[in-house]
Structure formats: structure tokens, C-alpha cells
Write a structure and sequence with these properties.
The chain is an alpha/beta fold. Helix content is 36%, strand content 23%. Strand 11 and strand 12 form a beta hairpin.
């Protein structure tokens, strides 16, 4: 009995102390049309209420979102315990604002009104965690600029979900780039040979949480989802800033120069559109875009050539209908330094898993000694990381314990965001760099759309 009372006291005291140190947050999920809204709830968080308020119009998107949450609650391993409190109606956004039941709103869905939702939520005292993109055009960027000012005035946190920073090869690329004896200094590059090149390739037909993903019909409407150059390009531009200029404030007004930008479509047949959406015909709002009676040109591909702090950068984003190899999304990255190039490749030779390579400009004994010293240093935080020789240089070997999938990254981003809410300690470079990111994508989109 005495042991029980001591145990009970310790648990109660620990719970009390946790409550004293942390705030309790209640989430409202607004119009969840993208599967990322559900991935935020794939994990439970101790300082987040189990009740999540969902505001939306009745739709198939909403039904799929609720089913995903139900599946997480009912899974055998580590089931969640979310209780979705649902409100449906055309006035769902006004209802969320009026109810004042949540202090955090989660936005992941149709992007057409996202920048307006962000601004109004902040004006009404609600913190915002937004899936990318927060803005899909120049008008949206103007609202995002205002939103960050409102957030600062109201002591609120506005943040977007950048999961790709948590991919271990990107983390290690960032760290090796700071090892001057290995990487040297970042080259400036030229228009023809940029010092930084990053590209992602996405698949429209893919599997999420073990199920083939059903895309909303509006996802293929660039006025609602946004073009690829303003949507998934945000991840690529973010990685340029985060990996290549770590912890540095970027001023979009003076540090960025857009040189060129292009966009082009992935042409979808009605059959492919139906496989993705389960719809038997193109919706009325897409009819004016259909060519040859049955082809939808989906402008989801783009590239940007720009200078960031005087360094030439090229970013590319592509969408294929389906992987010819049965693989998922892919990413590649090149950073050219005065001593070595840091390359991430994710192709057939890597079994479609991202692999980091170090390619020295002069592979001699001095370089190998410097590399081994850097590996020893990195192993203090990443035990087991090493290198093995290749024909070009070295392949970084990474233990399986550091390799997480895209879905697992969401919980870690949410946990970081909750920490910022608790401690008001978001790094000073985050807000200006979010502004720089959306300036880059929105400005490039304007250029691509106005080119003849």
C-alpha cells in the first residue's frame, strides 16, 4: 500500500508539474482537403487536447479525412485517441472564428483561400500551423506579409510545415557544408552552372498510410491548389535556404534576384484523372482547360533560376502521373564547394532511397584525413554515421535508426511548433526566411506566367 501511495503521488506530482510548465492547446482543423491534415494527427501530443474541432463543408474530402483519423484511432500498434467534434456548413470559417474553441488552427486543403484564412485567424487571436503553401500567388504573398505583422503584434505563432528538413541526408548535407576542411566555401556559380541545384519529383498516383491516395478533383485545378512552382517548390526553396545558409536571416528585398522561371504541364487523360479522383468526368470548373476533348494540362512543373546572397541557384519541381519503377517521390541535390561537391541522389542505383555522396575536387590524403576528422565529430550526435569509398569519392553510410519516412516527419514538426508556442522561442531567422521563400516562389510564378 505504501508503495502504491508513493507511486500515485509521483505520477500525480509529475502530471501537476507538467501542467505548470506547459499550456494546453486545442486544435481546429479547417476544411481538411489534403491528407497532410490527417498526418498531423497520426501521433498524440501530451499538451494537445484530444478533442479536435473540425469545420468544413460536407464533402468527400471531409469524409476521407475523418476516415483517416478513425483508422489511426483503431490501428493495432500505438492507436491514437482523437475525438473529432464536427461542424459542417457553408459558414464553417465564420463558425470557427465565432466559437473560439481552439487556440491553434490547422490548415491543409484547398489553397485558394488559405492566405485569407491565415490572416483572419491571426486577427482573431488564433495561432496558425499551415501546410505548404501558405500563398500560391503574389496577392497571397501580400496577405502573408501582413499576417506575420499581425502575428507579431498579437504574440501569436504562424508557421508552415517543412517536413523535408527532417530527412537525414539533408541534415547531414547541411552539417558537412559547414565543415570547411571538407566542403570549403560555397561556390558562387554561374547562370549556366549554378552552385546549388535541387530538384524533387512527385507522383500523382501514390500510397499514403498503406492506402492508394484519392486526390480531390480540385487538386488538379491550379487556381485552387496552385501551380507546382508555387506549391511543392516551397520545399525545394526552403531546403536551399536551410541547408546552404544555416541560421542566417534572408532579406527578400535585397538578398534574392529572380533571373528566370519556367512552367509546363503534365497532361492527364480522363482515364488518369479518374484513377486519381474516382470521378468519371472532368468537373465543370476545369472544362475551359480541357484540350483535344479529353486532356487536362496540369501546370504542376516548374523551375526557377535565381541568385540568393549572390549565389546562383536552380530549383526544379516535377509531377509524374505514376512512377515507372514503382517508387515514390524522389529528390536530388547538388552543392558545389571549393573543396568538394555534396550530392544527394535517389535513383535506381540507390534503390530509390536518398543517398548522400561527397565528391572531392582533389581526392588526396589530406582530404581523406579532413573527412575522417569530420566524421568523428559528427558521430558525437549521429552515432554510427560513416563513409565508404566510391569511384567518384565517398558515400555517407547512415544507420537505419536515423531513417524516417515522410509521414513520421509530421509529428516532429508539430512538436517543434508546440515548443515555439510554449516558449515563444522561434529562431529569429524563421519568419524572414518564410517571407523569402514565398517571395521567391510567387515572384517566379509571376515571371513564368507572363513570359511569351
Amino acid at each position: 500500500m505504501r508503495r502504491f501511495l508513493i507511486s500515485f503521488f509521483l505520477v500525480t506530482f509529475s502530471t501537476f508539474m507538467f501542467a505548470q510548465k506547459t499550456k494546453l492547446y486545442t486544435i481546429a482543423t479547417l476544411d481538411p482537403g489534403h491528407f497532410h491534415a490527417a498526418l498531423v494527427q497520426k501521433t498524440m501530443y501530451p499538451n494537445v487536447s484530444t478533442e479536435v474541432y473540425v469545420y468544413a463543408k460536407p464533402s468527400a474530402d471531409l469524409d476521407m479525412h475523418l476516415k483517416r483519423i478513425t483508422d489511426y484511432n483503431n490501428r493495432k500498434e500505438n492507436p491514437t485517441n482523437w475525438k473529432e467534434v464536427l461542424y459542417t456548413g457553408d459558414d464553417f470559417f465564420k463558425k470557427m472564428i465565432a466559437d473560439k474553441k481552439a487556440n491553434v488552427v490547422m490548415l491543409s486543403g484547398n489553397n485558394e483561400l488559405k492566405s485569407e484564412y491565415i490572416l483572419t485567424s491571426l486577427q482573431n487571436g488564433i495561432n496558425v500551423l499551415a501546410d505548404k503553401p501558405m500563398a500560391i500567388d503574389a496577392k497571397g504573398f501580400d496577405k502573408i506579409k501582413k499576417s506575420f505583422l499581425i502575428a507579431k503584434q498579437n504574440k501569436l505563432q504562424l508557421y508552415d510545415i517543412m517536413t523535408e528538413r527532417l530527412e537525414i541526408t539533408s541534415i547531414l548535407q547541411r552539417l558537412f557544408a559547414q565543415e570547411s576542411q571538407v566542403f570549403g566555401e560555397l561556390e558562387k556559380g554561374t547562370k549556366e552552372h549554378p552552385a546549388i541545384e535541387k530538384k524533387n519529383v512527385h507522383m500523382l498516383y501514390k500510397t499514403v498510410s498503406g492506402n492508394v491516395l484519392t486526390r480531390p478533383e480540385w487538386f488538379m485545378d491550379i487556381t485552387k491548389q496552385g501551380e507546382g512552382i508555387a506549391d511543392v517548390m516551397t520545399h525545394v526553396v526552403d531546403l536551399v535556404q536551410w541547408v546552404c545558409f544555416p541560421n542566417q536571416v534572408i532579406d527578400y528585398k535585397k538578398d534574392i534576384k529572380i533571373i528566370d522561371a519556367n512552367h509546363w504541364p503534365t497532361n492527364l487523360t480522363l482515364s488518369q484523372f479518374s484513377s486519381l479522383t474516382r470521378a468519371t468526368s472532368f468537373p465543370s470548373y476545369l472544362q475551359n482547360q480541357i484540350i483535344k476533348d479529353s486532356i487536362l494540362p496540369y501546370y504542376c512543373n516548374g523551375e526557377i533560376l535565381y541568385q540568393l546572397k549572390g549565389t546562383y541557384v536552380k530549383t526544379t519541381t516535377l509531377w509524374n502521373y505514376k512512377s515507372e519503377y514503382g517508387a515514390g517521390d524522389m529528390y536530388s541535390s547538388y552543392m558545389r564547394g571549393t573543396n568538394a561537391t555534396l550530392k544527394i541522389q535517389q535513383g535506381p542505383n540507390e534503390s530509390f532511397k536518398p543517398v548522400l555522396y561527397i565528391i572531392p575536387n582533389n581526392n588526396n590524403s589530406a582530404f581523406e584525413k579532413a573527412l575522417n576528422a569530420s566524421i568523428t565529430k559528427l558521430q558525437k550526435d549521429f552515432e554510427g554515421v560513416g563513409v565508404e569509398k566510391t569511384n567518384e569519392g565517398y558515400k555517407v553510410t547512415i544507420p537505419a535508426k536515423y531513417i524516417e519516412n515522410h509521414e513520421e516527419h509530421f509529428a516532429r514538426v508539430v512538436q517543434s511548433y508546440l515548443g515555439y508556442l510554449d516558449k515563444n522561442n522561434m529562431p529569429n531567422w524563421e519568419v524572414p526566411n518564410m517571407l523569402a521563400k514565398y517571395y521567391t516562389t510567387s515572384s517566379a510564378l509571376t515571371l513564368a506566367q507572363t513570359k511569351k
